[in-house]
Amino acid sequence: MAEPISRPQPGPAAPRNLCTDCGISRTATPEDCGRACQFIRPDYAGLEARVYGRTRDMESDERFFGPFRHMLRARLEPGAEGAQWTGIATGIAEALLASGTVDAVLTMAPSAEDRWRPEPVIITEPSAMAAARGMRMGYAPLLALLKPARAAGHKRIAVIGIPCQIYALRALEAELEFERIVVIGTPCSDNTTTEQFHGFLERLSDQPETITYLEFRADYRVELRFEDGHRKEIPFLNLPLSDLPADFWPLTCRTCVDYTNVLADITVGYMGGDGDQWLIVRTEAGEEALAALGARLATKPLTSKGKRKGAVAGFIANTKRAAGGLPLRRMPKWLRPVVSWAQPRFGPRGLEFARARLEMKAAETILHLRRNAPKKMKNMIPAHVWALAEPYGLTAKEDEKQESPPP
């Protein structure tokens, strides 16, 4: 009987700048990176048209979040033990395996040596999805498992991935020879190496090796959980972000143009969830995947509170300093408790929080590319990113406008 979790070992990565090691460079055809990489010459409009039959509506919230059928606030009841939130992403995959809709899931599980290090795996038994619950930090070549999965006889697969992985998957999807691929996306832009992440944990606790859980929450706090069961909450303003090394967030993650995983069938995140999970259902396959959860899925209406403009403008001012090599302005210690109290009460929350993060990411992309890789701007920055940044005075210069991608 086949093992419920297999861990094929991918080949070495091909060295390249602006790479998050999605796995394509580790395959027998690393040259596919040239047309599949989000960080070379992305064509979001073209892939949106291919996946959805249309591009995003720039007059609606699709301007921020990409094409979708509907969005909702949700949680599983009861929640899954060991899940980062309540287990919706892995719960969907488990249900798809149980129903026979797919016969394998490509996702991440923790390395046996390090609970925080992601390792790509192929899962074939519903109960084995429990091993994939929770968050990990670091790069992992998920897409290097596509050909091993096909060679193992899997014809219908689900893939749980972050945006740079899913962009490459969609770019190559028609050539992969699977009968069906269900794409479960999670939002992402702020990744780092596992080694750097351990350094971050050391700044948060004098017992970092006992931390089992970390989450940036929508109430402007980071939650830590420990092996002995106790929890700790740290306001964002008290995080030691200005003490991190300059390369903690790599340039790829500071220039990501797809925070919400717009090419997934369903995006499962938290930014717009106001304390719950935030689901963006994008396709018929996403509708079917969500329906597989049945009565366990509890939903609420989405919220949208507060105003984002001031928060985004402040972020842009600090990012300009960082992109220019200047130190970040630190808020006086006496003021931090006041602002930490006010942020979750008066700052942007729900969908307004999510919109704020998308505008921040658009500005961050533009500013860091201008500083570090100006010649790449005309290829890397889609029109919708410029549209998000324009209200804050960030507009494309003539040599920064995206060229039309090849047919």
Walk me through what this model shows:
This protein is α+β, with helices and mostly antiparallel strands and about 400 residues long. Helices cover about 30% and strands about 15% of the residues. It is built from 14 helices and 14 strands. The chain has helices at about 35, 45-50, 60-65, 90-100, 145-150, 165-170, 195-205, 250-255, 285-290, 310-325, 335-345, 350-370, 375-380, 385-390; strands at about 5, 70-75, 105-110, 120-125, 155-160, 180-185, 210-215, 220-225, 230-235, 265-270, 275-280, 295-300, 305, 350. The strands form 3 sheets. It has a 9-stranded mixed beta sheet. A 3-stranded antiparallel beta sheet has the order 7-8-9, with no helix packed on it. α10 (about 310-325) packs parallel to α12 (about 350-370). The radius of gyration is 20 Å and the shape is globular. The termini are far apart. The model has no long low-confidence stretch (mean pLDDT about 90).
Instruction: Indicate the percent of residues in helices.
Output: 25-40%
How far apart the termini lie comes to 45 Å
The overall pLDDT average reads 92
> What is the succession of H and E elements?
EHHHEHEEHEHEHEEEHEEHEEHHEHHH
Please report which band the strand proportion falls in: under 5%, 5-15%, 15-25%, 25-35%, 35-45% or over 45%. 15-25%
Give the strand order, joined by hyphens, for the main sheet.
1-4-3-5-6-10-11-2-12
Based on CA atoms alone, the radius of gyration comes out at 20 Å
Counted by DSSP, the helix tally is: 14
Say how many strands there are: 14
